[in-house]
Amino acid sequence: MYDDAEREDPAEFQELVVSAGAVPVALVTGSRSTPNPKFYAGSGKVDEIRDTVRDLEAEVVLFNHALSPAQERNLEHALQCRVLDRTGLILDIFAQRARTHEGKLQVELAQLEHMSTRLVRGWTHLERQKGGIGLRGPGETQLETDRRLLRERIKYIHKRLDKVRKQRDQGRRARLRAEIPTVSLVGYTNAGKSTLFNSLSLAGVYAANQLFATLDPTLRRLQMPDIGPIILADTVGFIRHLPHKLVDAFQATLQETSEASLLLHVVDAASAERDRNLEAVNLVLQEIDAADIPALMVFNKIDLMERVEPHIDRNSKGRPIAVWLSAQRGEGLELLQQAIAECLGDDLFAETLTLKPAEGAMRAALYAQGCVLEESWDESGNNLLQVRLPLSDFLQMLRRCDIEPERFGLRKQHKETCEDFEASLDFVVP
Questions:
Q1: Which residues form the Hflx-type G domain (predicted)?
Q2: Cβ(186)–Cβ(238) under 8 Å?
Q3: Which 8-state DSSP code applies to residue 12?
Q4: β-strand pairing of 311-314 with 320-324
Q5: pLDDT by residue (tens digit) across 254-297?
Q6: Please, are residues 217 and 235 in contact by the beta-carbon 8 Å criterion?
Q7: 264 strand-pairing partners
Q8: How far apart are CA 172 and CA 175, in angstroms?
Q9: What is the pTM of this model?
Q10: How far apart are CA 175 and CA 166, in angstroms?
Q11: CA 252, CA 245: separation in Å to the nearest integer?
């Protein structure tokens, strides 16, 4: 069922149906200014759907909208077949794709919370009291028993996910102490995030041309030019009208996005719905409090476009704002790495250092860091080293070699950065 007023894409709805493993046999569309409180669709449209179900012998009717429990019950009675709304359809896809223990817990939580308001549909035939010696009296109906069991299971899953969240928090704190930035891939479902993730990390994550191919998050440590190690995170794709319950249930996973140092917003550049997909992702980022995190746009699948070559778009200050590439063909990946380094390397130290012959320990430390681009000597026998490395690493190196930052003019140019870094060192290494 498709409502023109909401301007949904029927092709995306059919992709969702196929992703769930169903075979679509008919698409019934309609337009109403306001939903019918009883059926969501009008009574005439319900008759049309019932005739279509009977003629094609369909087993289930899927609505591309969120239905209330009463509407689902009324529609099932009128159509004499199973009815599933958009939320139930997405949950079914998630249940099929979950692989890790955490992912399965999150899917089960979302399913149980969605099911809790719909129990009455399945248990109306068991509305009777318990009997027997010691059990007479008001007792407990079957429906009340199932609701109680449901609440207990939801409470149990919340406890397990809280434990997972604490474990992830420990991992994030360890990365912060080690000053390793996290780069999180976000974007509309089927934008090519997992393909890009595999191209950058060689992780072998499952990637397919279907909606929600990725459900469980994957983290990989990468070595980036100039800035050193980063953590790259692949996350579940977003979609228009993502139910709030799903966002809440997947909070432990989405926290990797909300606490990232940089977001790579992957976009299917060849999609006709590109602009609308961008808006949908931005709305979800607002829901999870990630809208203010620095983001780099990644326009993927340029191999499906005409006369578009890999390139970097920059703003008026020369900062990268977008990278155009093809993850499938591996075109433009070096440009993406360059853009990531520039976005994360705001405090990059790139200078030519003059080291005295007695400062051989500093020279050896720079070579051990792998940051020496070129070396030469002046007439006095001093080493001239052209280096490029994160400022925090350079400050730590100076401290180990007992060299004052003023030696290279850093107090004047980077006073705040030096003070903040030294304060963090005092905290980490008392």
A1: 181-348
A2: yes
A3: H
A4: antiparallel
A5: 777 777 888 999 999 988 888 888 888 888 888 877 888 889 99
A6: yes
A7: 185, 296
A8: 5
A9: 0.67
A10: 14
A11: 13
